[in-house]
Design a protein that fits this description.
58% of the residues lie in helices and 20% in strands. The chain is of the alpha+beta class. Strands 1-2-3-4 form a four-stranded antiparallel β-sheet. Strands 5-6-7 form a three-stranded antiparallel β-sheet. The longest helix has 34 residues. The two termini are 44 Å apart.
Length: 227
């Protein structure tokens, strides 16, 4: 089971997943690539020196330069893993900002606590499809900031759609509870198909954690008592 799957609650579903734009990774390793190119050029240069003094110390200098190159390569790999493991997740219940290679850190914003989503995109961001998203919640100290996220408009649209669906589910639950009273009057005996449909709908609400197990059992007994 992946770390992301361990973060999810029971029956929680990922709706959208995004990373920072690749420009973030390229920006991190840009300096490292330049330094590594200089080291390679230096190794090539000292091999062309013919003086006796350089011939004596040349193997040691080459070993030092190669060691520096290996350290730069290791740093580039770490930068790639750090970029790859920073994820922006949207589920049917919350927004998650996850980062870290070995030591993980996550910041959650529940969909029902989100007040607004601000997007900032520069001219270059519009050209290459990246930008910043700030998820503002009811708690001012728990705002979630997504820097240089790839395809910010698509993520924002998916977030707003998920929030609308999430906010609509409690109202749908109340409609489902009230619908039974109107659908099956006390004096009318429901048929088997009606009972099965109502029980399936109640079970679906329980699976989505919109009602508790106690609510489910109480409503189940009420439905079965009318048979």
């Amino acid at each position: 089971m992946s770390y992301v799957e361990q973060l999810l609650a029971e029956n929680e579903e990922i709706k959208y997943q995004a990373h920072q734009h690749p420009f973030v990774f390229l920006g991190r390793i840009g300096f490292e690539v330049v330094v590594m190119a200089i080291m390679v050029a230096a190794i090539f240069f000292i091999t062309k020196l013919e003086s006796a003094k350089w011939q004596a110390i040349q193997p040691y200098v080459q070993v030092i330069l190669i060691a520096i190159i290996l350290l730069i390569l290791a740093s580039a790999v770490i930068d790639f893993l750090r970029w790859r493991n920073e994820k922006f997740l949207l589920t049917d219940r919350r927004v998650i900002h996850l980062r870290g290679i070995v030591n993980k850190a996550s910041l959650d914003s529940s969909l029902d606590k989100i007040n607004d989503v601000q997007m900032r995109q520069t001219f270059m961001g519009r050209m290459f499809n990246y930008g910043d998203l700030e998820v503002q919640t009811a708690n001012e100290n728990s705002d979630n900031f997504f820097a240089f996220i790839r395809a910010p408009l698509e993520f924002k649209r998916a977030m707003l759609n998920a929030k609308e669906e999430h906010d609509r589910e409690p109202a749908m639950y109340m409609q489902s509870v009230n619908a039974y009273k109107n659908f099956v009057p006390p004096y009318q005996r429901p048929n088997d198909n009606d009972v099965e449909e109502l029980l399936l709908r109640l079970n679906d609400l329980r699976q989505k954690n919109l009602i508790t197990d106690a609510d489910f059992e109480a409503k189940k007994r009420e439905i079965l008592s009318r048979i």
